[in-house]
Write a structure and sequence with these properties.
The protein is built from five helices and five strands. With 150 residues, the protein is an alpha/beta fold. It has a five-stranded parallel β-sheet, sandwiched between helices. α1 links the parallel β1 and β2. α1 runs parallel beside α5 and α3 crosses α5. The chain is globular, with a radius of gyration of 15 Å. The protein starts with 11 loop residues before the first strand and ends in an 8-residue tail after the last helix.
């Protein structure tokens, strides 16, 4: 069988509610954005989960598969996440990180996939950094890179 295409960062978008205010998180995000060329982060204004859901759905493109980050989502080890993302090369994925009050239930219900980064709860800024790091790690695993083991 033909090898599965590796993750294509230019087909991935992160839709995040709220601004990143901490400089050190911004610095970290810039590191991973350089390592994931083509990956785009769309920032939406924070309000309440209902309004945020409407803004997210308005932002979502018809060809994008909605992946929401939420605490009841699927918990995967880094290797399993890399495997899950392997072969999504041709799909467009939109990973959504909600604001302080989380995501509206209706939005979660519309997602083709719900993912949890951890059973722990993180501030949305940190969740954004963790997601980018894990996407980079997934790409590194798929390419057999040394980063994953360091």
């Amino acid at each position: 069988s033909a090898p599965q295409p590796v993750l294509n960062p230019s087909r991935i978008r992160v839709i995040a509610v709220g601004k990143v205010r901490k400089r050190w998180i911004q610095d970290g995000l810039e590191v991973y954005l350089k390592r994931l060329p083509g990956l785009v982060v769309s920032e939406l204004k924070d309000s309440n989960p209902q309004r945020e859901a409407e803004a997210i759905l308005a932002e979502l493109r018809p060809e994008e598969r909605l992946v929401v980050l939420c605490e009841e989502g699927e918990l995967l080890a880094s290797e399993a996440l890399a495997e899950r993302l392997q072969g999504t090369g041709s799909e467009r994925l939109a990973f959504v990180i909600g604001g302080a009050d989380g995501l509206a239930a209706a939005l979660k219900a519309r997602a083709s996939w719900r993912l949890s980064l951890s059973p722990l709860t993180f501030p949305h800024e940190l969740a954004r950094l963790l997601l980018l790091e894990q996407l980079y790690r997934a790409l590194s695993i798929q390419q057999g890179g040394a980063y994953h083991r360091s």
